[in-house]
Amino acid sequence: MNANKPSIMTRGIGVTFLDFNRLNNRIAGFPQYNPLKNRIWTLSFGSMHVEKNFVSQFTVTGGSSLTGNRNKKSSTLRTLGAGIDFGYDVIPSKNIMVYPMVGLGAETFHAVYFKDVNAVDFDAVANSSTVQNNIRKTKFVNSFFTYRLGLGMSVKSPKDDGSIGLQVGYVSGFQEERWKSAEYQNLNNAPKDGLHRFAVTLVFTGGKMMGMGK
Question: How far apart are CA 122 and CA 78, in angstroms?
Fold first, then answer.
């Protein structure tokens, strides 16, 4: 694509696959909870800049496994993260980009567990703070600093300066991290997990970022 172009907005929708095996193995010992699923649906927003075939992008991503029911035994996994990536367009074309990428980022995950409360009586909840606490959701959090490897491809729209493309990538934490309470408190004997996830994202670009680029 054209060099020296302004920074443009990016929007993406995708799916990422990961397993927090040690957390799931520990939760398996508590029959009131369901283990986490290994798939998260994601939405992202950011900016991309291309300068003489060098590509840089900043992306904020949020996601959810879209599982979990507040009334039934279930679980859901939610995430929020950001990353900056650098790449190089290896295809000398005005309309097509193919660019390997490397980058750094940070991500936080929330593992939320719901109990089956359908059999709990209304009057019991109204009368007892103990019952109230017993039916509340349980949440653990974990955060990672990450490195990112990926490959992107995009095709310019014939009608405007926007494009549609696909990015695939691998994201890993630098080290294993302990799961913490919902208030980010350290817990004794908490399981540790590493972050290793694969992502596929459909990316749409278009619209200049004000005050960025030339």
Answer: 29
